[in-house]
């Protein structure tokens, strides 16, 4: 009987030893859940929007553009005069580099004929290096001397032919209107409040609700709640018999 008990105990020992091994083998199954946890903490990407094509851009030449010095095919460096905004975000900042090309030109002539020059807008180079094509052109005409030429022709005949017009000049600071020629995608910084473009200039009497304005009524209601206990002693004052 003693030998039978010893054999039974020896047979049960491997089975008991196998239980921790099974638990140890099952433990790695929980590891992937621990590794995947940090992925939940990754912030969502900032929302993206698009500046529509044909958006107005105001440019000016970096230096005076004069038809006396320029010919067809010459390029004219430019820059934006104002920020271009969309949904309350500056998409094209003031001072962004641009380029235009002289695509047509006539020199000044006799009898007060002024020079003419046509500039075609090419592109903008954004701060991140992206090149945004532009559409549109600007024609500049010199101030003519037609009146003086007619007066000289009447007074001295053929000598009126020596009265010439003026060159076409675009000074630095003159506003030239171009348009974007394709949509431009841009990102909104995380946590920024997007203000729809239609609400940037609301009509009179229309309030634009912002997070700061929403919190104001809650702050105003707090003093009224705190003042309520002060009225209790007056209600419990005994009256004379």
Tell me about this structure.
The chain starts with a helix and ends in a 6-residue tail after the last helix. It is 28% helix and 27% strand. It has 5 helices and 13 strands. A hairpin with a 5-residue loop joins strand 8 and strand 9 (131-135). The protein has 241 residues and is of the alpha+beta class. It is elongated. The strands form 4 sheets. Strands 2-4-7-8-9-12 form a 6-stranded antiparallel barrel. A two-stranded antiparallel ribbon has the order 1-13. The protein has helices at 2-26, 31-40, 146-156, 211-227, 232-235; strands at residues 48-51, 56-61, 65-66, 75-80, 84-86, 89-92, 97-106, 116-125, 131-135, 137-141, 169-170, 176-180, 184-187.
Distance between the termini: 102 Å
Query: Which structural category do the helix and sheet elements fall into?
Result: alpha+beta
Q: Give the biggest sheet.
A: 6 strands, antiparallel, barrel
Label the overall shape: elongated
Strand order of the largest sheet: 2-4-7-8-9-12
CA-atom Rg in angstroms: 40 Å
Give the total of beta strands. 13
Order of helices and strands: HHEEEEEEEEEEHEEEHH
Regarding quaternary structure, what we see is: single chain
Report mean pLDDT, rounded to a whole number: 72
> What share of the residues does DSSP label as strand, in percent?
25-35%
Number of helices: 5
Features:
single chain, 241 residues, alpha+beta, 6-stranded antiparallel barrel, two-stranded antiparallel ribbon, elongated, disordered C terminus
